[in-house]
Design goal:
Blueprint lengths: L1 E5 L4 E14 L2 E6 L5 E5 L2 E7 L4 E6 L2 E6 L2 E6 L1
Parallel strand pairs: 1-8
Antiparallel strand pairs: 1-2, 2-3, 2-5, 4-7, 5-6, 7-8
C-alpha cells in the first residue's frame, strides 16, 4: 500500500506500508492491504505505520482528513 501524508506546505511522508493506524473521530482504526474504500475525518493524535521492512514510524497530527482507495491512503493534515 502507499501512504501519503500531506500538510498545507509539503509532503510529510510518502512510502510503501503494510499497515496504518489513524485517530478517527469515532476512534482509532487500522487500514490493511485491500481495505474497503473510505473517507474519514481525523482527531488530534498519532498516525502510526509499519513499512514493508517492518520499520515503524509515527506522526503527531492536530486533525485532518483521510481517503482510502485502491491501496492508497491519502492523509491531509493540519
Amino acid at each position: 500500500m502507499t501512504l501519503k501524508i500531506i500538510s498545507t506546505s509539503k509532503i510529510v511522508y510518502e512510502g510503501q506500508v503494510n499497515s496504518v493506524t489513524l485517530p478517527g473521530t469515532q476512534g482509532l482504526f487500522t487500514v490493511l492491504k485491500n481495505h474497503a474504500s473510505l473517507i474519514s475525518t481525523l482527531n488530534a493524535g498519532i498516525i502510526s505505520y509499519k513499512d514493508d521492512n517492518g520499520t515503524q514510524g509515527q506522526f503527531d497530527v492536530r486533525g485532518g482528513i483521510v481517503d482510502v482507495d485502491n491501496n492508497v491512503i491519502s492523509v491531509c493534515i493540519y
